[in-house]
Design a protein that fits this description.
By secondary structure, this protein is an alpha/beta fold. Helices cover 32% and strands 22% of the residues. The strands form 2 sheets. Strands 5-6-7-3-8-9 form a 6-stranded mixed sheet, sandwiched between helices. Strands 2-1-4 form a 3-stranded antiparallel sheet, with helices on one face. It is globular and about 50 Å long. The chain starts with 6 loop residues before the first strand and ends with a helix.
């Protein structure tokens, strides 16, 4: 029996004005997979996330989550941006539950408290964004992305604005939450080490609109040692493919 993918995507064409951004792009994610998208700036990685999230419908093709259009199942997809994008006038709790009207009911408050505990910010529900560090703000953004109990989590370079140590802590947090919430994850990153640490597969988009340029399957299960020598040949292969794409 054929197992239906959690996410199936076919983008025949996607334009930004007169510019063709994506063409003949097909990909599938199985339930529970963590997949990273890499490629040159401007190759359509963030655009692809917008299509999957249902923020952009102006394309030719189709997207299915568990065989249904994303719009048929509100809350199924969570999206986390490069910047936390917190509302400065709302408390941490208000930001997390914003999509549900601000989180004033007991059920909202209980879920916010649970998520804050999960992201390591217990007791911060009344804090304002200006009182948070960059890493703390991104933890709030992660909690907000999980508030609707999504099955698919999309992340657009979510850790690029923090220092290296905070980035590693947030990567490990993402792995733990993905397991805990049984998430399927699609991540855009320019950091090859991040892709190698987090992913089951790494997909390279081409510099020109075209089908996927390359796919790399990670040979090691989670949890992984960041310095595992088994990852070095794969990193070299990915870097060679990226260099070749830029050389065209």
């Amino acid at each position: 029996m054929t197992v239906q993918p959690m996410l199936g995507l076919h983008v025949d064409e996607k334009h930004h004005g007169a510019r063709l951004v994506l063409r003949d792009l097909h990909l599938q994610l199985d339930a529970g997979e963590i997949v990273s998208l890499i490629g040159a700036s401007g190759c359509g990685k963030s655009t692809l996330l917008s299509l999957v999230a249902g923020l952009d419908h102006a394309f030719r093709g189709c997207i299915a989550i568990d065989g249904r259009a994303p719009g048929e199942m509100p809350g199924t997809v969570g999206l986390i941006f490069q910047e936390p994008r917190l509302f400065p006038w709302l408390s941490v709790a208000g930001n997390i539950a914003f999509g549900a009207g601000g989180g004033h009911s007991r059920s909202h408050a209980a879920r916010v408290a649970m998520l804050l505990d999960e992201v390591g910010l217990r007791g911060y529900e009344n804090a304002l964004p200006k009182q948070l560090s960059g890493g703390q703000a991104q933890r709030v953004a992660i909690a907000r992305g999980l508030y609707s109990q999504p099955r698919l989590l999309l992340l657009d370079e979510p850790f690029s604005a923090v220092d290296a140590f905070t980035r590693m802590k947030l990567q490990d947090l993402l792995l733990r939450l993905a397991r805990q919430h049984a998430l399927t994850v699609l991540l855009v990153t320019h950091d090859i080490d991040e892709a190698l640490h987090l992913s089951d597969r790494v997909l390279q988009l081409d510099s020109v609109p075209a089908p996927l340029r390359a796919q790399f399957v990670l040979p090691l299960p989670h949890p992984r040692d960041r310095g595992d020598a088994a990852l070095a040949p794969l990193k070299a292969d990915i870097l060679a493919h990226l260099h070749a794409a830029h050389a065209i």
